Amino acid sequence: MTASTPHTASTAYTDYATGAPVVDTKAPQGPIAERWDTRRFEAKLVNPANRRKQTVIVVGTGLAGGAAGATLAEQGYRVVQFCYQDSPRRAHSIAAQGGINAAKNYRNDGDSVHRLFYDTVKGGDFRARESNVHRLAQVSVEIIDQCVAQGVPFAREYGGLLDTRSFGGVQVSRTFYARGQTGQQLLLGAYQALSRQIAAGNVEMHPRTEMLDLIVVDGRARGIVARDLVTGRIGTYFADAVVLASGGYGNVFYLSTNAMNSNATAVWRAHRRGAYFANPCFTQIHPTCIPRTGEHQSKLTLMSESLRNDGRIWVPKAKGDARAPRDIPEDERDYYLERIYPSFGNLVPRDIASRAAKNVCDEGRGVGPGGQGVYLDFADAIARMGRKAVEAKYGNLFDMYARITDEDPYEVPMRIYPAVHYTMGGLWVDYDLQTTVPGLFAIGEANFSDHGANRLGASALMQGLADGYFVLPSTINDYLARNPHKDEVGGDHPEAVAAVRETEERLARLLAVDGDRTPDSFHREIGELMWEYCGMARTDAGLRKALARIPEIREEFWRRIKVPGTGEEFNQSLEKANRIVDYLELAELMCLDALHRAESCGGHFREESQTADGEAARRDEAFSYAAAWEFTGTGEAPALHKEDLVFEYVHPTQRSYA
Amino acid sequence: MKLTLRVWRQKNAGAEGAMSTYEVDGIAKDMSFLEMLDTLNESLILSGEDPVAFDHDCREGICGACSLVINGEAHGPERTTTCQLHMRSFSDGDTIDIEPWRASAFPVVKDLVVDRSAFDRIIESGGYITAPTGSAPEAHATAVPKPAADFAFEHAECIGCGACVAACPNGSAMLFTSAKVNHLNVLPQGAPERGSRVLDMVGQMDSEGFGGCTLAGECATACPKGIPLFSITRMNREFVRAARKRG
Amino acid sequence: MAGAVLTVEPMAALDTRTDRRPSFVGLLWGSTVGKKTAMAVSGIVMLLYLVVHMLGNLKIFFGAADFDAYAAWLRTIGEPFLHHEWFLWIARVVLVAAVVTHAVAAFQLSRRDIAARPVKYAHKRRRASYATRTMRWGGVILGLFIVWHILDLTTLTVNPHAAAGHPYANVVATFSTWYGDVIYIAAMLALGLHIRHGFWSAAQTLGAGSAARDRVLRTTADALALLLTAGFVSVPVAVMTGLVS
Fold first, then answer.
1. Rounded to the nearest 5°, which phi and psi values hold at B214?
2. What percent of chain C has pLDDT over 90?
3. Which end of chain A is more exposed for a tag (fewer CB within 10 A), N or C?
4. Which H or E element spans position C219?
5. Alpha-carbon distance B203 to nearest alpha carbon in chain A (angstroms)
6. Which CATH class is domain C2-6+33-118+129-241?
7. pLDDT of residue A10
8. Is residue B129 within 8 angstroms of chain A, CB to CB?
9. Which of B165, B215, B218, B245 to mutate to test the interface with C (most CBs of C within 10 A)?
C-alpha cells in the first residue's frame, strides 16, 4: 500500500465503474411513523453487565460526538473519545447561531412531526431517505426536553415557557433558540454531560489528539490510529466499534465558515478503508456572509440570514460602478432578487440567493474589494421602522459586521457574499447510521443522512443531537450484541502495524520534501479551484477542467511542499499539510460526483440542467438516488453504488419561487 | 503597515523561553490579528524557521481557543477575542508584544499555546446538571421565569478562553468558575445539585493551583463576553450557603 | 509550581460526589473562597471596633478629665455582672482572634496568589486601583503599627510619658514626638486605603454586592475610609497644633 503517493492512474478518474446498488438500508418496512419503534424493538440489546466490557471509540466532541459519548457512557459502555481541540468544549458546533428545529407545536400553528418530516424532505430537494428523515422529526421533540433538563438557557417568554421563531422560510414557528448562540449553548450542554462521564471514569478523553487512520480487522472496524498533537506520538486505540462524529468537509474550499482546523481526515481515511462516501458534491453555500477583504483572508464569517427579512439586496446597474453606494441614485440600482423573483423577493431560498449574487458579480457588477460582494441595504428599513427598531432586531449582527469591516451598517449598506457553510454529503450510512464497514458508524455532519441535497436552516443542530443522544445509542446496541467482544486486538496486530507504518511514512514524507511552498498556499490553490468549478454553479466542462487540474496540484504538492520542524513535537504546519493531503483526494471525488450528477438539485446546480427561466431542474427519472462511492485507489476511478430513493409519503415536485 | 513583533518563543513545556523580535511588512488594516500572525508564519516557514504556534479555531469569537496577551492585555486592546481583533487597532511602526496566558495552572505547551485542561476538570467536578439522556420530563413541565433564564444565559455565554485567569494578578479562575455555577444554580433544573456543585467546583478550582480572588476586577475587564464581576459575588454567597448546609 | 504551594498550604480538592463533608469551619478554612469569608468577617469585626475606638478617641477634645474618666469607665463595663476589666479582656481576645485570623488567612492566600502567577508579563502595564494593589503591604504596615501602638499606649513600654491611668498625658506625649506623629499618620492613611478596598471587597466576599447596590457600597466604603482616617488623624494634628496639650 502506498498511502497518498502520486502515481498515474491506469484508468481515467472519470471512467468510474457502477457497482452493485446498495439495497439493504436496514430501514424497517411498514407505516413510516412506526418504523423507528419497530427498529428499536428488533434491535438486539447488550446485557447491562456486559456493557462495561465493550469499548466504543468516538471521534469528535461536537453536538453529535459529545452527545453520543455521554449517552453511551451513561448506558454503561466504556467510551474512548478524541478531539483535536484542546478541550471538547471547542468543537465547531459551538459557532451555530440561529436555532434548532423541533416539532413541538407549542404555537399551535399546525406543526407536527409529519410536517417537519415533509419540510425536510422537500427542502432537501427529494434526495434524502424518507425513513431517516421521519425518525429525525420524531426524535426532535425529545431533544428539546433533554436540553432543557440539562440547563440549556433557551429564550423564554415572560410566562416562563419556551419561545420559538420561524426560520429559513418555513411557515411554522418551530425554531428554539438561545439568542444568536444556540449552537454554543447546546454544545455546552452536551459537553457538560460528557464531562460528568469523564469524571465518573466512564469516558477516557483524549483532547489534542487527531485520528489519522482507521484500523479494520477481519472486515470490522476495530480501532484508530491517532496522533498526540502535543508530543507527536502516534498511538493505536482499539474498540468494539468506532463512531465518527468529525463534522463536515467544507474546508476543502479553503475559505468557508468552518473552523480553521475542521477537516476531512477522519472520514476520508475511513473512506479509503472501505466506507462508501455518499453525495460528496452536495455542499451548502450560505448567501449572507461577510465578503473577503483580500488575499490574507483566512476564513469567512456568517451572519444570520434573518437579515434578509428587512434588508434589500442590490448592485449597481452599470458594470464597474465605483461610486459610493449612497451616491448611486435609485434608478441606477438593480434590486435583482426583487426583479427576478417578484413574489419571494429577498427571501428566496439560500441556494437561489447565493447563485443570483454570483451571477451579478460574474457580470462585473459586484461591489467592494475584488468585486466579490453585493449590497444588503437597510436604509429603507431604517426609514420605515426607525433606527431604534432596527437596532433592537439586528443590533448584535450590525455590531459584528462593524467590528469585522470597520463600516457602520446604519450608514452604509452592508456588503455580503455567499460562502461554503455546510456539507450535506458524507459517509454513507444505513438506517442504523452504520457505514459500509461493519462496526464503523458515522453521525452528525460526517454522514450523508437526512438533509438530501440541501439542508434547512436550524436543522443541523437537530440532526447532530438526534444522532448523538437518541439514534446511535439505540442502534449501536444491535451491532455490539451481534458481535460480542471476543478476540483482543492490540498494537502488534498486522493491520494495526500496517496502519501505523503508513501514517508514519506519510508524515515522514511530508517532512522530507523540504520544498518551497507552504501548506496554506496549496490549500488556497485547491480551494480556489473548487470554488470556481465545484462551487455555486457547475458545468461539465468546468468540472472536467478541475478533474484534470487536481492530480497536477497533488503531484506538485508532493514535490514542493515545505513543512518545518519534526513529527515528534507540537507542529501545526504538519497537521495542516496532512489534512491537505486528504483534501487533494476528496476534491477529486467531489468533482466527479458533481460531474456524474447531470441534474440540478438543492445545493448542486448544473448549468446544463435548468428551466427556461434559469431555475434548477431536477431530473428524477435519472438521478433519484444517493450516490455512494467506493474507494479503489488514489487517483483510480472509484466505483459508484446507487441507493435508489423511494418516496412513499412525500411526492417529488419541482420547486418554484418565481 | 510595518510592525515589529516581540513574540514569546518556547520550544516545549520543559524548555526555557524568551521574547524574539520579528519584523512584518505589508500588513493590511483589515487583517485580523491572527491573519497578521499567519502572514508572519508564512514567511517563517519559507525561510526555514519554526512558525509561531498559537491556538485558534473558529475565528468567530465563540470557540474560546485563541489566547494571546497583546501588549500586556488578554486578547489585546479591544474588548473581544484575539481572533476578532483587527489590525486597524494598531498603527504603522508599532511594536507589539505577544505573550501566552501566564498562570501556573496554565503551563505553556509551546510558544503561545497553553494547557487549559484545568478548566475542563473544574467543569467535570460539578459544572453540569445530572440528567442522563432519556430521563428528561417534557420541556414545558417546569416554567423558568424569564429573568432567571436571562441571568442563566448571561453567565452561560462564557467561552472558557481563560482571559480572566490571564488578566488576574493572582491567576485566579473565580470568574470562570462562578459563571458556570451561576448559570446552573439559578435554574430550577440545577437546584438539586446547587450546594454540591459550588463546593465541588470551588474545591477543584483550588486544587488546580489557581490563586484566590482579591476582587481586583481585571478578569471582568478582560472578559470578551462581558461576564460581570458580580458573578463572583454571587458565587461567594452560594458557597457560604452551601458550606452552612454542608452540600 | 502549583504542587509546591499545595504542600505548604494543603487545599485538597473537596471530594466530589460525597455525602461526607468537613464541618462548616472546615469547609471555609479549606478553600480560598472560605478563607476570604473568614477575612471578610474578621475585617468587619475590626472595622466595627475601629469606629467605636475612633469615636472614643474624639473625647480627647473634651479635656484630660473627660478622656481619662472615659478610659477608666471602659474597665468597668458590665459590672457587676462582669468582674473589673473582664469586658476589656473579652474584647481584646476577640480582637486578637480577628487580627490573627485576618493575618493568617491573608498570608496563606497571598502565598497561593503569588505562586499561581510565577511568571510576570514582559509587557508591563498598570493594573487595578491603588487601594487594591496596596492591600498586602498596607496590611503588613497596619500589623506592625498595632504592635507599636500597643507597646506605646497599652503596655506603655515605649511611651515617653508612661503614666498608668493617665492616658491623656500619654497620648499627648506620643504625639509630641515627631516619630510618633509620622508613624501614626502614615498608618492611618494606610488604614484608609485598606478600608476603602477592604470594605467593598468584604461585601462582595459575603455575597452582598450586586450591580444595583454597587454605588451604595462603594460610597459607604469611601465614607468609612475618609471618616475613620480623618477622625484618627485629628488627634495628632490637634496635639501638633496645640489644640490639645
1. -115, 15
2. 86
3. N
4. helix C214-241
5. 14
6. mainly alpha
7. 57
8. yes
9. B215
